[in-house]
Write a structure and sequence with these properties.
The chain is mainly alpha-helical and about 80 residues long. The protein has a domain of about 55 residues: 434 Repressor (Amino-terminal Domain), CATH 1.10.260. Helices cover about 55% and strands about 5% of the residues. It is built from 6 helices and 2 strands; from the N terminus they run E-H-H-H-H-H-E-H. Strands 1-2 form a two-stranded antiparallel sheet. The chain is elongated and about 55 Å long. The N and C termini lie far apart (about 40 Å). About 15% of the residues are buried.
């Protein structure tokens, strides 16, 4: 099973480096990179720490299913008949 996340997007929104996030949640900056690439599944404890850091519910940061693009979630685009 893989776990998808929005860590890179959340960091970018906050102009936050991997090193700064890692420092705040108590891991190595490489761990943040592994998480963002999907090369590492976080422990439950780390997932809670990251979610709390961003002040978001865990399901807003992590999901067993791929996240839909934000543009799809925010905007409804009607398809025109050809």
């Amino acid at each position: 099973m893989s776990i998808h996340n929005r860590i890179a997007v959340l960091r970018a929104e906050r102009n936050l480096s991997r090193a700064k996030l890692a420092e705040n949640v108590g891991v190595n900056p490489q761990t943040i990179g592994f998480l963002e690439r999907g090369d590492y599944i976080p422990s439950l404890e780390l997932a809670f720490k990251i979610s709390r850091f961003f002040q978001l519910p865990m399901e807003a940061v992590f999901s067993p299913d791929p996240f839909r693009p934000l543009s799809e979630q925010v905007y409804t685009i009607e398809k025109r008949p050809a």
